Amino acid sequence: MTEFAYLVKPRVVPPLHARFAPAVLANHAYLKAVRDSGAAVPLNIALERQAGFVSVYKTWCFDESHESSHFNLRFAERLVKFLLWKHGGWRIVVGGPRSVGEHIRESYSPQGLRAFDAEFFAGVYQHRFTVEVTGADNTPEPSEGAMALGRHLEGCRIGFDLGATDRKAAAVIDGEPVFTEEVVWDPRNAVDPSYHYNEIMAGLKSAAGHLPRVDAIGGSSAGIYINNRPRVASLFRGVPKDLFETRVGNLFLDMKRAWGDIPFEVVNDGEVTALAGAMSLQDDAVLGIALGSSEAGGYVSETGELTTWLNELAFCPVDYDPEAPIDEWSGDPGCGAQYFSQQAVFRLAPVAGIKLDPRLGPAQQLKVVQEMADSGEERARQIFETIGCYVGYGVAHYADFYVLRNVLILGRVTSGEGGNIILNRAQDVLRTEFPELAQTVQVRLPDEATRRVGQAVAAASLPAARR
């Protein structure tokens, strides 16, 4: 990966990552150079996804005649990568200098740098992935759409959350949980979708036993869900491809029919996390960032709605250092999964001089580091301080693409003293480097109110009951 000329050394340097080159600083430096050049021209990126929804991002780049125009290519490639995983899409329209559009087309060709992404999204949307090149004036108009989901608390409802190691279900009456259940399961190694169907249905029936009736069911799960259909989800990774298409794709639609076609909605767990935060804070413009085995994201808009976007922040670039750690799945350097997750903890541990027992599982290894931080061990504290720097610069980067008033950081990496260290260092980054943003965006760990609302209650509130 070639180096971007506008890399800027952060004012708050992560103690264990001296080469960290925050995307937000590089983008700001590049755009300032474009503005100051007197040769700025529009660059518009449109992305089309399901149901004809279109997102449009408008920015600037150097005119092709300018001596610095070759820097447009790296900027645009990282920008499109971010927008694609934020919004989703099977069609990209690049409106601007032709050299930029052709570079994006080549990057997303079968032999290009982003071939993985093109193939992935073609599968998600079941549509041939295309890149179109046009002038800035011919870019499609935005057509965002939104999901009128959440905050429906009336009646008798079931909420469920499907994790990799446990499944949760709750019975909720008028917004108050009257029963909760957590059951260990092993969905990732199950090859027969009947396992998933029967396990989830068992949880729903268990919750239903504590309700006089069931008016609606809402659920959350990791993965990409479009119209209640799983398109990519780690819970089903053991299922052969043919069975995924024929049975997993309709799994929740089959459940809906089994429950008499009552309102039934399933969305990504990151979206429900953000919704739970918005409900507890009684505010909107909420971005949830879950630091778990990977990074999960969810967003509630400034108008209080869930969007039709993907918000798969794990694959959005946040570090432009050409030697940034590489995401093992997509092969791309500098993406969120390596910075906002337990993967970051394990990557930084040897740098801090901490050797973890390879016989322990990831959860146990993380707990060892967290216990060291809880006891005041400086090497462990430096790991969480480094992640806190990532979070601070990451929040500033996300703020260039989202309307934000609140950012919730949560997930197993934020447990214990490590979470406080992350939060404090992130806030320090914002105050030092982005003082205006620090005045308008609140970065928080979940408080007791958020925990009381909970994931299951927020999931139960997804569907509107029949009138």
Characterization of the model:
The chain is of the alpha/beta class. It has 3 domains: 38-144, no CATH class; 147-268, Nucleotidyltransferase, domain 5, CATH 3.30.420; 273-454, 2-Layer Sandwich (Nucleotidyltransferase, domain 5), CATH 3.30.420. It contains 14 helices and 17 strands. It has helices at 23-37, 71-87, 98-107, 115-125, 193-208, 241-248, 251-258, 269-281, 342-352, 362-374, 378-398, 416-433, 435-440, 448-460, and strands spanning 40-48, 54-62, 91-95, 130-134, 146-147, 156-162, 166-173, 176-184, 216-221, 224-226, 229-232, 264-268, 286-291, 295-300, 306-307, 406-410, 442-444. A 5-stranded mixed β-sheet has the order 8-7-6-9-12. A 4-stranded mixed β-sheet has the order 2-1-3-4. Strands 14-13-16-17 form a 4-stranded mixed β-sheet. Helix 8 crosses helix 14. The longest helix has 21 residues, at 378-398.
CATH homologous superfamily designation of the largest domain: ATPase, nucleotide binding domain
Radius of gyration: 22 Å
Number of strands: 17
Mean pLDDT: 94
As laid out across the biggest beta sheet, the strand order is 8-7-6-9-12
Instruction: Report the CATH architecture of the largest domain.
Output: 2-Layer Sandwich
Shape: globular
Low-confidence stretches: none
Structural class: alpha/beta
In whole angstroms, how far apart are the ends? Answer: 56 Å
CATH class annotation of the largest domain = Alpha Beta
Number of helical regions:
14
Major sheet summary line: 5 strands, mixed
Helicity level:
25-40%
Number of domains: 3
Percentage beta strand: 15-25%
